[in-house]
Amino acid sequence: MARPLCLQSALYAVGSGVFLSGNAVFFTQVVGLSAAQVGLGISIAGILGFVVSVPLGSAVDHVGPRRAWLLAALVEGSIYLAYPWARGFAAFLGIVVALALAESAGNSGRGAYTLDILASSERVRVLAYTRSALNLGFTLGGLLGGFALAAGSRTVITAIPLVAGMLMLLNSLLISRLPKTNHKRRGERVSRFSALRDRPFLAVSLLNGILGSHHALLMVVFPLWLVERTDAPNAVVAWLFGLNTLLAVSLQVWAARGAETVRGAVRASRLAAVALTVWCLAMLASSAASRWTTIALLFVGYVAITFGELFQSAGAWGLASELSPADQRAQYQGAFRLGHQLQLMLAPAAFTALTVTWSPIGWLVIAAVVALAAATLGPAASGTTGARRRSTAAAGRST
User: Fold this and answer.
1) pLDDT at 189 over 80
2) Does residue 140 share a domain with residue 19?
3) How does DSSP assign 329-393, residue by residue?
4) What range defines the domain where residue 45 resides?
């Protein structure tokens, strides 16, 4: 199953990467929006996606993960094809909201399908391969989108979402050709919000979200830090981004080894916390360094946070796989993403304020938060597995 899942992941990432690399230009030059309107619309869609993540996951469990994933992919492709005809904020908002809902349902369906189709012992390894395929796809898609923007033609820019839409529809064809699974369902009615009442699992989700804040640190905080607080040349960002992509593609499978169990996943998450702490210390030191020393510290920090990304991803896969009940996998996949979605909304502004706006000492605050999250993750995961065993035992006695 690794090969078809990797191919599907790469194709999806190329389509997404093509559009994401040029979406800001498309929204402002073609749709006719201001930058503030674009930000507001995307924020509204993100908040709505956060709110509906769990109930949509429950609906996916009812419909079936593969079928829901396929329907979501078809909707995504159709939405991208509709983009060139959108004019004004209302049309834009309707499209981004519909896309957020489709992506949420598709993510839950894909996650649950992967857990259904793969044996427990191979899930994390295969997910590591698909993550590498995603990184390659996003890189290729970003390059294609960049070439389109470089052309400077309104016609070419308008064609960007059309290309993305066609790739998404081709992606749906690949999904339709994946083998079917027997998604386990309970005989009795299951609450659409049972995952939200699983407090240890929600704690795991939130703590994993904190450890997953490397995305905000890399994409938002680091460029601002380099420009505002160091004397390193701006071109360093591009070189380090390339290094991150190379390491992420080549080392993800290696970093995922041993994360197939809850204990192994917690260990990987703690390694991620160590790497993120090294990153924070390197960034703090770079504020007082000069030129080549600064560049060296940024390089060390960037390598460290890349390893943090690799280990955190592996830990997240293991936790989501082992802690999700077989009959509610899509709902629990939606709940597990809540921590990630929350940090995407809060981390960029909070971490920028701490480090760039306030003081370099803010890096120590971030390191402390990350360390606390890693230390708390193990007990939370143990609480989830203990509750799961008690529930299973009670169900066995009742029968």
Assistant:
1) no
2) yes
3) HHHHHHHHHHHHHHHHHHHHHHHHIIIIII-TTHHHHHHHHHHHHHHHHHHHHHHHHHHHHHHHH
4) 2-176
